[in-house]
Amino acid sequence: FLPSVGLFSHLGVLAMAMAASICLFVATTPAVLRQDRALLLFAGGMTGWLALDDLFLLHESVLPRLAGIPENAALGFYVVLGLGLFRQIGRRVFSQRFLGLWVATAFLCVMLATDLAFHVATSPSFLVEEVAKQCGWMTWAAFWIAFARQSLPRPAARVS
């Protein structure tokens, strides 16, 4: 069981890195819908940073040791980033188009609540946190990849 945990964690990181790359690439494409460009840049940058954080344990180990930033402060900053993302989306966030983002956010909130409630990881709490994290990351990645695709204009239909 233990060796597979790292594999699943890395799959989430790969999905997040892929989503970040796609968002940033589409955002810099001249054809992208203007109203989605800034949102894709923000989401791509945030997603890329979260992938790096998960891969290198930045908020758990690196930032507290090297920069003296407590883990809870880093987590609070991520919540602020998330709220900034929702603010940038604006009223559109309540449309059907953003349902996947709400599902991802729910999974990530479960992960965060589990992480904060159980400071010492027990097998059940670790399992809940890891499953919620991976479901959240995969749903987040799938949402932003689909959003990036929808932000590109549709090709004109061929008439034969």
Can you lay out the helices and strands and say which pair or pack?
Elements: H1 2-27, H2 34-56, H3 58-67, H4 71-89, H5 99-117, H6 123-150
Instruction: Briefly note the structural class of the backbone.
Output: mainly alpha
Beta strand %: under 5%
Radius of gyration: 17 Å
Helix content: over 70%
* SSE topology string: HHHHHH
* Major sheet summary line: none
Number of strands: 0
Question: Taking all residues together, what is the mean pLDDT?
Answer: 90
Count of helical regions: 6
Poorly predicted regions are: none
Report how far the terminal alpha carbons are from each other: 56 Å
Q: What would the principal axes of the Cα set say about the shape?
A: elongated
